Amino acid sequence: MGKILGIGLWVCIVTLGAVYGSIYLATAPAGPSDEAKKPALELVRGEPITIPVLAGGDVQGYFLTRISFMMDKEKIKGQKLPVTEMMTDELFTLLVGNKMVDIANVGAFDVMAFRDKVKTEMNARLGEGMVDQVMIEQLDYVSKDAARKAADGAPGAMAKTTVVEGEKVEEKPASGH
């Protein structure tokens, strides 16, 4: 009786081992994940810039903006010109030349279209695939009168219109080297 139970147990163990082995060997190894296919990205912080809003040959107000980018780390190394200054120039062109923001109707501002436009224009200028993501940290509008009052030392905070609620972009701490 003991021998029959031992043989039955042995057959069960061998069968389970064979099934486990065949399933393990038949399963294809997982290919590289989407994360592995993406290029290594680096945060390039934009400068805070003030862009005048012109209408009728006169300054009507100012955009206060800071836009940062997630950029391909390898492609940044190959740039001969300073990337931050090129980004600032492109933002001036988009916000002054294209009139993308209607100050009279700030609620109609399409943030995603603005980000896509900035990304497309930056990639056209710097090289395809250079900019992966556009992060708007600040995009406010200040009228000329509010700026003048603040410059003259008026008490209280300067009156401004927030066009886009900014994203918090954290900088990596500097290494101690």
The percent range for helix content is: 40-55%
Based on CA atoms alone, the radius of gyration comes out at: 29 Å
Query: Based on helices, strands and strand pairing, what is the structural class?
Result: alpha+beta
Number of strands: 5
| CATH C-level of the largest domain | Alpha Beta
The total count of helices amounts to 6
Largest sheet entry:
5 strands, antiparallel
**Average pLDDT metric:** 76
CATH architecture annotation of the largest domain: 2-Layer Sandwich
The string of secondary-structure elements, in order, is: HHEEEHHHEHE
Biased composition (Basic and acidic residues): 165-177
Organism: Rhizobium glycinendophyticum
Protein name: Flagellar basal body-associated FliL family protein
Region (Disordered): 157-177
What does this structure look like?
Strand 2 and strand 3 form a beta hairpin. Helix content is 41%, strand content 24%. Helix 4 packs across helix 5. Strands 1, 2, 3, 4 and 5 form a 5-stranded antiparallel sheet that branches. It has 2 domains: 29 residues; 129 residues, GTP Cyclohydrolase I, domain 2 (2-Layer Sandwich). The chain has 177 residues and is an alpha+beta fold. It is elongated and about 105 Å long. The C terminus is likely disordered. This is Flagellar basal body-associated FliL family protein.
In brief, what are we looking at here?
The protein contains 6 helices and 5 strands, in the order ααβββαααβαβ.
Descriptive key words:
GTP Cyclohydrolase I, domain 2, 177 residues, disordered C terminus, 2 domains, five-stranded antiparallel beta sheet, Flagellar basal body-associated FliL family protein, alpha+beta, 5 strands
